[in-house]
Known about the structure:
- The complex is a heterodimer.
- Chain A has no helices and eleven strands.
- Chain A has strands at residues 4-7, 10-14, 19-25, 32-38, 45-51, 56-59, 62-67, 72-77, 86-93, 99-101, 105-110.
- The radius of gyration of chain A is 13 Å and the shape is globular.
- By secondary structure, chain B is an all-beta fold.
- Chain B contains no helices and eleven strands.
- Chain B has strands at residues 4-7, 10-13, 19-25, 31-37, 43-51, 54-57, 64-66, 76-78, 87-94, 103-104, 108-112.
- In chain B, the strands form two sheets. In chain B, strands 2, 4, 5, 6, 9, 10 and 11 form a seven-stranded mixed β-sheet that branches. Chain B has a four-stranded antiparallel β-sheet with strand order 1-3-8-7, with no helix packed on it.
- Chain B is globular, with a radius of gyration of 13 Å.
Amino acid sequence: GENVEQHPSTLSVQEGDSAVIKCTYSDSASNYFPWYKQELGKRPQLIIDIRSNVGEKKDQRIAVTLNKTAKHFSLHITETQPEDSAVYFCAARSSASKIIFGSGTRLSIRP
Amino acid sequence: DGGITQSPKYLFRKEGQNVTLSCEQNLNHDAMYWYRQDPGQGLRLIYYSQIVNDFQKGDIAEGYSVSREKKESFPLTVTSAQKNPTAFYLCASRRGQGESPLHFGNGTRLTVT
Lengths: 111, 113
């Protein structure tokens, strides 16, 4: 079946440095790749998404890249700040409306 | 997001009892989803529905059942057949056309003892 793998499971970076989270997906028919941020005790919130006809998308300090050939996509956060500390999930929309999530990355920003 | 309401926030049940989690949305979204979240794990898909009176199993549907009689409602029943029902349950919806994002409710934390 469809699968999304996410790495690393935990990530600690110095404030001001960059953070990169990577995901791979198994279904070559996947065409939509959202990223969600979940703060402790709260629901996941969409932070950025990318469609299969686009290779890269940026929104201020956040960027996502997609390599359809390798079935790989990544989240890049630059100039990290304390409020970036959270759990981040990648996801892929495969056949029909099925949306599968990765296992999550707990990002900690060190002051 | 006030558009998706899950109730209750906390739910406690005895083992062997069925329990139904409520999910209502006023966003006029066609598609609705149920995910389960366990500590340190991602969101695992239980069931999803693209239109009224139709739904599909996700990756961990065993021990769960759903109905979609109305566009705005997608209740999830956790049956006694579910071996490890204690978890955080998230409901979500999306427009259903094109590549639209999921909007999540605040979740229900179910504890079964």
